Amino acid sequence: MAERKVITVAIAGNPNAGKTTIFNHLTGARQHVGNYPGVTVEKKEGLLRRGDIEIRVIDLPGTYSLTAYSVEELIARNVVLEEKPDVVVDVVDASNLERNLYLAVQFMELGVPLVLAFNMSDIARARGMEIDTQKLSRLLGCPIVSTVGHRGLGINALVEAIVKASRESMRPVQVRYGHEIETEIKKLQDAIMASGLVNLNKYPARWLAVKLLEGDSDVLAKVPGPIAAASQGARNRIENFFGDPPEVIIAEQRYGFISGACQQCVRRANVEARHNLSDRIDSIVTHRVLAIPIFLAFMYGVFYFTFALGDPLADLGGSFFALLAKSISNLWPPGVHSSLQSLIVDGIIAGVGNVLVFMPNILFLFLAIAVLEDSGYMARAAFIMDKVMHRIGLHGKSFIPLLLGFGCTIPAIMATRTLENRRDRLTTILVAPLMSCGARLPIYALIIPAFFPRNWQAPVLWSIYLIGIILAVVSAKLLRSTLFRGEAEPFVMELPPYRLPTLKSLLLHMWERSALYLRKAGTIILGLSVLLWAMSSYPEKPGLEQRYAAEVSRVKKECVVKQLDPEECQRKVAELEHSRQSEALEYSLAGRVGRALEPLVRPMGFDWRIATALVGATAAKEVFVAQMGIMYSIGESDEESEELRTRLRENYSALVGFCIMLFCLISAPCVATIAVTRQESGSWKWAVFQFTGLTLLAYVITTVVYQVGRALVAGG
User: Fold this and answer.
1) Reported confidence tier of residue 433, pLDDT bands at 50, 70, 90
2) Which comes out higher in pLDDT, residue 171 or 184?
3) Which DSSP category does 343 fall into?
């Protein structure tokens, strides 16, 4: 005869959720009543048979949470932690979902096999609530059964779910509490696991760490002194950062998780009166019609704030580096070319300076983002865009990093840390450079006025940005259907309550992210800038310096003999210096690479000068403008140089100008982006894939556009 299997089930739930009614329907008359040891709290147990399976049912005391604030709460969690039932059934009042799910979230944190019984589902329907239980089940990672306890509806389905959960439990989703709290949880979790104490082994280490942060007296009594002291230090750090005790922040995050899940899975035909400030604000900012305009207004405000405050400081930074470069150059006699001088001025100062001048913009951008994140609005922005992003296989949280890409790709890639799913994260990282960053704007500002009449300038600029967006969408869809194939994993879009951010938290968030950008400028960007300088400076053309020194001497003598105006004399000397730079660059390794690349770039309409400038622009996109100025012996040039625009018009067509912008839009991003991609993806493989993939894509698209455009012009 086959051995009878016994399943132990604990029935939990809020008071008045119908838990006892469900218990009675499950066990009938086969139940007995006693007290829990040492207390007067009633203990009810019963039996249920299903085929050859015997189900032992324990009715836990009604409780709102699993903290140690009351005897009932302590009993409920100790039964689950120490008796370890095979399944926990949490009876939820479906008509009061958000409050009742708080207990369910705490069971999820314990990692126990969990079944949710959505009781009073008839009352929920009568109140106009439509609950997508299948979707909510996927989001929470546990089965959901709708029941009507007083009529016995759904009991058989509940028993089937219990038996199934005891055999093949779904894994409940882990609630995340944000970077600051998660960091402290990890430290305490490691300390608990390293302690090796037997009395702690039966409890999940992460759960113990969370309870320590909440100041749970029962858990504090179980851990040794050093861990208790460490937990108090962690509590102090969190309170100093947020301005509220950790238990308040943790509770808010749980309710944010619940609110996000309900927003995605619950529809209310008859909207009830809102009971708190967050709900009242959400009724406006997540409104079906108003949400997008409000979101766009906030994003406009972010970018206006970033550039209105950052640009003047960036200009000061540019002036500082120009003055620094000039001061160092003046340490050498006029007309004397020194490799050390060139390394310092053209390699280090120019290379690192091109990145550091954007530091004010980065600081203000991250400050604005910190305000939106810490206030709670950024979660709503991701929620608003979720449906749109799911159509291309991404999560709503991917939208924010892509949006940031219009400012700078580096913080955009860093912002993908908010994405829990690695496939979503890698896809977003790989397509983020297709958002036209601010470093490309100087190229557009040079090319568009050079080739297009005023009434065409805005549409051309708009088309470039639009092309980048379309390519990002298509590329993301392609990546998710090939390399990162798989269903977009459902996970809850947390909607935490709105909070007034503390100044300390804003400044810390701003600095942590900006410091990463700054470290890149002092390490990888510095190294690659020196490498690109060496490529542009060596080998030196034999006799070049002597020949131009003689020319400079001749011009100066001529100025003295003919008594020319000093400014005219300086202009002639400057022209000679620019010609020397152009000839030196052509002879250098970068120039030779440009010459070697000319047959390859010809199908795009480019010549060796453009190819050489593109090689230099690998350090930073905006360097392309200065490199073109050197190629045409104009010297220091920026995007407003009329002389450079004239030279471009004389040598290239408007079609070539458009193709330059197109290639710079799509092709491999700057070295800093490649470095950050490697850091955030954890592998050089994805950084190399991004570099080569975008470059090849740029080559193919630009070639097609140029060849088709030339054929149309010839045919016309």
Assistant:
1) very high
2) 184
3) I
Output the DSSP codes for 183-245: HHHHHHHHHHHHH--HHHHTS-HHHHHHHHHTT-HHHHHHS-HHHHHHHHHHHHHHHHHHSS-
CB 134 within 8 A of CB 105: no
- The whole-number average pLDDT for the span 78-90 is 87
Q: State both tokens at 252.
A: 């808010």
Q: How many of the other CB atoms lie within 10 Å of CB of 523? A: 11
| Whether the Cβ atoms of residue 99 and residue 90 lie closer than 8 Å to each other | no
Q: Which two tokens stand for residue 67?
A: 């903290």
Nearest to residue 298, comparing CAs of 373, 231, 218? Answer: 373
- pLDDT tens digits, one per residue of 8-40: 999 998 887 888 788 888 887 666 766 666 655
How do the domains of the chain map onto residue ranges?
A: 5-167, 179-270
**pLDDT winner (highest mean) among 248-252, 327-331, 336-340, 597-601:** 597-601
Cα–Cα dist 380/284, whole Å: 11
Q: What share of the chain is helix, strand, coil (3-state, %, to 5)?
A: 70, 10, 25
Asked if 551 and 576 touch (Cβ cutoff 8 Å), the reply is yes
Q: Which residues contact 619 (CB under 8 A, 6 or more apart)?
A: 351, 354, 525, 528, 529, 532, 670, 671
| Per-position b or e across 119-155, b if 16+ CB within 10 A of its CB | bbbbebbeeebebebeebbbbbbbbbbbbbbeeebbb
Q: What's the token pair of residue 237?
A: 């750090």
Mark 525-545 as b/e (b = at least 16 C-beta within 10 Å). bbebbbebbbbbbeeeeeeeb
Strands in 138-181 per DSSP E: 144-146
Count of other CB atoms within 10 angstroms of residue 99: 14
Single out the residue of 235, 238, 205 nearest to residue 223, CA to CA: 205
Topology of domain 5-167, CATH: Rossmann fold (3.40.50)
Residue 92, SS3? Answer: strand
Burial 614-643 (b: 16+ CB within 10 A, else e): bbbbbbbbbbbbbbbbbbbbbbebebebee
Measured between alpha carbons, how far is residue 375 from residues 83, 264, 495, 631, 709 in Å? 41, 21, 11, 50, 49
Angle at 241 between CA 237 and CA 243, to 5 degrees: 110
Residue 34 corresponds to which tokens in the numbers above? 């006693």
Residue corresponding to tokens 């093949």: 168
**Secondary structure element (H or E) that encloses residue 354, with its range:** helix 350-356
Task: Give me the mean pLDDT over the 527-537 stretch.
Answer: 73
CATH number of 179-270: 1.10.287.1770
489-510 per-position pLDDT tens digit: 555 566 667 778 878 778 877 8
Rounded alpha-carbon distances, angstroms, from residue 242 to 99, 148, 187, 207: 24, 42, 19, 22
Spatial contact of 393 and 480, defined as CB atoms under 8 Å apart:
yes
**C-alpha–C-alpha distance, residues 233 and 251, integer Å:** 20
pTM above 0.70, yes or no: no
Q: Answer yes or no: are the C-beta atoms of 376 and 500 closer than 8 Å.
A: no
Rg (CA), the chain: 33
pLDDT at 521 over 60: no
The Cα–Cα gap between 249 and 237 comes to 13
**Residue with token string 């039966």:** 202
Cα torsion angle, 120, 121, 124, 125, sign: negative
Beta bridge mates, 59: 11, 44
Half-sphere exposure of 34 (CA within 13 A, CB side): 7
Structural tokens at position 386: 């979720």
Tokens 């047959």 sit on residue? 599
**Average pLDDT of span 456-483:** 88
